[in-house]
């Protein structure tokens, strides 16, 4: 049959049948649910946890007006999703990013529940955010947006109820604005007893030493455990990092002290490569000045495919979720992927990487350092204490090491991957509390 005939019959077939819609890509929450279902299959869990954890407890969606620098008003959409508070107050970051939407925040909130459970800290899980590109706003606008958002949240947050922290697009300044707004809308007599309304604050305003670098520090503690387990020498090793913000840059700076060399970086502005090594201090200064890695003089520009397929020992996604598709998973040439970001892998990527003998240290373990030190900040605020950085780091190290070992042992015992093991351990703990407490009435 000629090509033309092929076309004619294809045209007829499509005329006979209603056109089929292309399948929408899986959302982050859908991917998370598939991962969770694998975990429930191996966890020693009753029915209550399976039913209750399927959806968040509260979904708060707000539209609030803010006056822009040009005098005009603009409406913003903000979210606070409170997934579960069985183990303690809701806890989780606030994201400012133009892609923030309900499904994304739901997945991030659920991951917080499991992260806190796995690390055995007395918090539940939540996440929030505003659909906004923070780079398009002046500092004055960002302050007004943050304050209006906090005011609109009202009593939906509280130091013993729901405690926000920084995430993508937010930082210690954002947290200080949130704290100040919250304090000033309540009675002035106990203002200073409310500093623990947010964590990740600046040191001057009640933050903890070691909090800024905490997520990167936790990532590195996991890498050190992995290296011990695999008998791998970190001095002289190589790493690629996606995202050079809080998590990516601190991970790179701490790894440099261990002799690990950064050879490729990708962020929202592009990808760069230098097989001789990229100086993380100079790159961080460049990013601070220029808003991204693009144009950094100490490396060559490369494509995103080059970034993913660079031969390295360690690969650290530390940007957005769902970055590693099945196709990307087939290109990766690393020994281990350590998830600085939340949810960077698609469901199929886990299977492909397992077949290719590439280890994955999952998000709820690898990037838990941030929430662990947030917990330390919360305790310090409640007790009016300030701890030394050595105390913070050593307490963090103990928790990360123990959690890593629990995940490793569970994975080996049940013959599952570490994501399934980490989630299963987290839900087993929650399930045991439901079994003890039941639901009221
Ligand atoms: P950040 O805002 O400081 O930095 C984000 C980085 O991601 C930037 O380098 C940005 O260029 C890059 N990026 C954004 N969109 C991208 C895209 N489409 N492609 C490639 N790069 C892109 O954010 P952060 O606090 O470092 O958070 C990064 C990740 O780590 C997020 O998944 C976050 O949820 C997770 N995380 C953060 C913390 C924390 O303490 N900040 C704790 C746990 C997990």
Briefly summarize what is shown.
The protein is built from 16 helices and twelve strands.
Major beta sheet, specifics?
Answer: 7 strands, mixed
Query: Which series of helices and strands comes N to C?
Result: HHHEEEHEHEHHEHEEHEHEHEHEHHHH
Molecules bound to protein: nicotinamide-adenine-dinucleotide
Q: What is the CATH architecture descriptor of the domain at 214-366?
A: 3-Layer(aba) Sandwich
Structural class by helix and strand composition: alpha/beta
User: Ends: how far apart?
Assistant: 71 Å
Helix fraction?
40-55%
Which fold name fills CATH's third level, the topology of the domain at 214-366? Rossmann fold
Return the CATH class of the domain at 214-366.
Alpha Beta
Number of helices: 16
How would you sum up the global shape?
Answer: globular
Radius of gyration: 23 Å
Fourth CATH level, the homologous superfamily of the domain at 214-366: NAD(P)-binding Rossmann-like Domain
């Amino acid at each position: 049959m000629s090509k033309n005939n092929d076309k004619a019959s294809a045209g007829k077939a499509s005329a006979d049948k209603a056109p089929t819609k292309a399948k929408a890509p899986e959302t982050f929450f859908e991917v998370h649910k598939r991962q969770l279902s694998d975990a429930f299959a191996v966890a020693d869990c009753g029915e209550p946890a399976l039913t209750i954890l399927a959806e968040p407890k509260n979904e708060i969606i707000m539209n609030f007006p803010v006056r822009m620098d040009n005098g005009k008003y603009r409406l913003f959409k903000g979210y606070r999703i409170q997934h579960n508070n069985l183990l303690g107050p809701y806890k989780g970051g606030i994201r400012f990013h133009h892609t923030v939407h309900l499904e994304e925040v739901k997945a991030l909130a659920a991951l917080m529940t499991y992260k806190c459970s796995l690390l055995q800290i007395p918090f539940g899980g939540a996440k929030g955010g505003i659909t906004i590109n923070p780079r398009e706003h002046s500092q004055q606008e960002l302050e007004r947006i943050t304050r209006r958002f906090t005011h609109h949240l009202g009593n939906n947050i509280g130091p013993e109820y729901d405690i926000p922290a920084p995430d993508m697009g937010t930082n210690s300044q954002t947290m200080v604005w949130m704290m100040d707004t919250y304090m000033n809308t309540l009675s002035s007599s106990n203002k200073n007893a409310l500093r623990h309304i947010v964590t990740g604050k600046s040191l001057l305003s009640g933050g903890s030493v070691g909090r800024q670098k905490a997520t990167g520090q936790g990532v590195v503690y996991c890498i050190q455990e992995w290296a011990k387990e695999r008998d791998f020498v970190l001095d002289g090793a190589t790493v690629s990092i996606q995202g050079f913000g809080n998590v990516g840059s601190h991970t790179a700076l701490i790894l440099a002290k261990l002799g690990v060399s950064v050879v490729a970086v990708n962020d929202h502005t592009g990808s760069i490569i230098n097989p001789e090594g990229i100086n993380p201090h100079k790159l961080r200064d460049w990013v601070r000045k220029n808003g991204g890695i693009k144009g950094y003089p100490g490396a060559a520009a490369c494509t995103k495919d080059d970034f993913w397929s660079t031969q390295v020992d360690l690969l650290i996604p530390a940007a957005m979720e769902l970055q590693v598709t099945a196709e990307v998973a087939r290109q990766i040439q690393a020994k281990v992927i350590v998830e600085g970001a939340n949810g960077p892998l698609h469901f199929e990527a886990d299977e492909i990487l397992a077949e290719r003998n590439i280890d994955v240290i999952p998000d709820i373990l690898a990037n838990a350092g941030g929430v662990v030190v947030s917990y330390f900040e919360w305790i310090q605020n409640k007790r009016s204490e300030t701890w030394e950085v050595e105390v913070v780091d050593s307490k963090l190290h103990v928790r990360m090491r123990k959690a890593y070992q629990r995940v490793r042992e569970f994975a080996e015992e049940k013959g599952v991957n570490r994501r399934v093991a980490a989630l299963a351990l987290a839900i087993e703990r929650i399930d045991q509390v439901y079994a003890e407490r039941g639901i009221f009435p």
